[in-house]
UniProtKB/TrEMBL annotation:
GO terms for biological process: GPI anchor biosynthetic process. It is found in: Endoplasmic reticulum membrane. The chain crosses the membrane at residues 195-218. It comes from Ardeotis kori. One of its GO terms (cellular component) is endoplasmic reticulum membrane. This is Phosphatidylinositol-glycan biosynthesis class X protein. InterPro entries: PIG-X/PBN1 (IPR013233), PIGX (IPR040039). Pathway: Glycolipid biosynthesis; glycosylphosphatidylinositol-anchor biosynthesis. The gene is Pigx. PANTHER family: PHOSPHATIDYLINOSITOL-GLYCAN BIOSYNTHESIS CLASS X PROTEIN. Stabilizing subunit of the glycosylphosphatidylinositol-mannosyltransferase I complex which catalyzes the transfer of the first mannose, via an alpha-1,4 bond from a dolichol-phosphate-mannose (Dol-P-Man) to the glucosaminyl acyl phosphatidylinositol (GlcN-(acyl)PI) intermediate to generate alpha-D-Man-(1->4)-alpha-D-GlcN-(1->6)-(1-radyl,2-acyl-sn-glycero-3-phospho)-2-acyl-inositol and participates in the sixth step of the glycosylphosphatidylinositol-anchor biosynthesis. Probably acts by stabilizing the mannosyltransferase PIGM.
Length: 224
């Protein structure tokens, strides 16, 4: 559980997103800087809620492994994700990412989440497809406090406030200023004019592998 002790009834925030690494397998780094503008908000948990478009996804099995080792904490909505689906058959995914305090900044929080690009339809011209990732919403959950409705907008989030309780509590949305309104992910795609060549190579590879398997069966006997 990450607890933020603030003395504020109103806050705003600055949000920064970065995509680390290259290719299909990336790390989404989210940074939140809070600025206190009031008093008496008590202890709160900070999270970022972002909507992933169909062209990008979070592997639920990878996420479960990371959470088991306390390397990250996040919720997927819906929690079932088809990791094999291409971009044109996938749907949006909502992610609630719990933030950790940034040791280099007393009022800053950060969290990283592994994300993966989906396969897209072949393109006529470009060798890259663009996936647009909007700036996330900053949420605060103060389970033991009643925040001023004049400063905080209640958010409909069915999620616990921290790791110490499984009971959902009231989350609130904070006004924030994104460093960038959107983040662009470039995903490699194939070209349509290469389709025939790809089909021929795939067929030859299939025939070769099948022949090697049959040869091994004939030489060493039937496979059990």
């Amino acid at each position: 559980c990450v607890i933020l002790d603030v003395q504020a009834a109103c806050q705003d925030a600055t949000v920064t997103q970065e995509l680390l690494k290259e290719g299909f397998h990336r790390d989404l780094l989210v940074k939140v800087e809070l600025r206190i503008m009031g008093d008496d908000a008590g202890g709160c948990t900070v999270a970022a809620r972002t909507r992933l478009p169909p062209g990008i996804y979070v592997d639920p099995y990878e996420l479960a492994s990371l959470q088991q080792h306390n390397l990250t904490k996040a919720m997927l909505i819906p929690d079932g994700t088809d990791v094999e689906a291409p971009e044109y058959l996938a749907t949006d995914t909502l992610v609630l990412l719990y933030m950790e305090p940034d040791p280099r900044c007393s009022h800053c929080f950060r969290a990283a989440l592994p994300v993966h690009g989906r396969y897209h339809r072949p393109s006529e011209e470009s060798e890259e497809a663009l996936v647009v990732l909007k700036s996330p919403e900053v949420l605060v959950c103060c389970c033991d406090n009643h925040l001023s409705t004049e400063c905080w907008k209640p958010a409909e989030v069915e999620a616990p406030c921290s790791g110490k309780t499984v009971r959902p509590c009231q989350w609130y949305s904070i006004m924030h200023k994104p460093a960038y309104e959107e983040l662009i992910l470039q995903v490699p795609v194939g070209l349509r004019q290469h389709s025939s060549l790809v089909c021929v190579i795939t067929l030859l590879a299939t025939v070769l592998c099948s022949s090697l398997i049959l040869a091994a069966v004939c030489k060493y006997g039937h496979l059990s």
